[in-house]
């Protein structure tokens, strides 16, 4: 994406960005400055539903990364982060470790999560699910095998017509 292609007349903010901004004390004005004057350091032109890019800017001396989606004249601030020096080079422009594909700012660690699935009137909470969890944003990734187990649990509860089911995943 060419920097000239970004004409963000309108900024809107995702729930995720708002929470990150609150946690890290990043204002709307700060993000506006970074969108207008920041540097594009990574580009995801094929992301859906619209192209994304990662911008680097500074608030006082703090480096800030914004992931924004560009949808015509409207830009969506998807995440706002202070990059972790352990994961980035000294200029905060190059990733030194594998990234989380959702926030593009964290790496994953093994852990356990509670998966929430919803369909119709049914809500299923599946506890004790082994996952790779992003240390930055908390999004998690499951193996194909675990995903199938989780989907099966969800389907079971949905077909029984349970409103709220809490199950503990038994993993070998
Ligand atoms: Zn993440």
Automatic annotation (TrEMBL):
It holds the Pfam family DUF4258. Coiled coil: none annotated. Gene3D superfamilies: 3.10.20.860. It comes from the Bacteria. This is DUF4258 domain-containing protein.
């Amino acid at each position: 994406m060419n920097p000239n292609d970004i004409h963000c007349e309108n900024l809107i903010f995702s729930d995720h960005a708002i929470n990150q901004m609150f946690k890290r004390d990043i204002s709307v004005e700060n993000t506006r400055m970074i969108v207008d004057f920041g540097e594009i350091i990574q580009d995801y032109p094929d992301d859906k539903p619209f192209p994304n890019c990662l911008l680097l800017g500074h608030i006082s001396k703090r480096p800030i990364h914004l992931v924004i989606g560009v949808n015509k004249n409207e830009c969506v601030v998807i995440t706002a982060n202070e990059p972790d020096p352990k994961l980035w080079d000294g200029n905060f422009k190059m990733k030194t470790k594998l990234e989380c594909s959702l926030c593009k700012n964290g790496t994953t660690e093994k852990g356990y999560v509670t998966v929430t699935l919803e369909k119709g009137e049914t809500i299923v909470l599946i506890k004790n699910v082994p996952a790779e969890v992003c240390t930055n944003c908390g999004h998690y990734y499951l193996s194909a095998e675990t995903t199938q187990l989780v989907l099966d649990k969800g389907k079971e509860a949905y077909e029984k017509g349970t409103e709220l089911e809490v199950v503990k995943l038994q993993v070998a």
